[in-house]
Amino acid sequence: MTAVQPPVKRRYDTSSRREAAARNRTAILDAARELFTSRGYTATPMAAIAEQAGVALDTVYASVGRKPQLARLLIETAISGTGGAVPAEERDYVRAIQAATDAETKIAIYAAAIRAIAARLAPLLAMLQQAAPAEPQLAALWHEIAERRAANMRRFVADLAAVATLRVDLDEAADIVWATNAPEVYQLLVGQRGWSPSRYEHFLADAWHRLLLAG
Length: 215
Fold this sequence. Notes:
Layout: H1 15-39, H2 46-53, H3 57-64, H4 67-80, H5 92-99, H6 103-131, H7 136-161, H8 170-180, H9 183-192, H10 197-212
């Protein structure tokens, strides 16, 4: 009598599902970025984002959450330059700054990094400014980001002070960097006054060198 073989279990391929989910998430973020910056946050319903991305509305909610969570994700990805939030100490440019042995190199690396971040973040600034009064979660997000930036600036100038003498104390130095690298400055100089991004980067590096370093 021939033994009955058990049915062969098919291996469940999760890679294709992960790839499809990643594509959907990217399409949703791209659509939200375009619509939020062209129409505004309030005037953009989630259904319009789903239509623009070519996915079902339920897919949008499952992938990125509700509208405030989607806006937060856009801001975090603009800051990190990746698909999600990345702590400051884990970013490549921060590690490069820490590894540099002189203040001029540290400043140059940071100015280049801010140029890239500001280019991604500045278009979303108007969205946040327009939406924050009516959307407490976005107002809280912008305050949180401002405080995170302030803490990061403190670490940056402390790193500078470890290799060079500063003209001002650490608190004032941190505030100078915090103010000059704000996305509003990029928006004013590049967006409104027509500066090139490279000119903006040079301005930052030159200003920090003059304002922060003694001698």
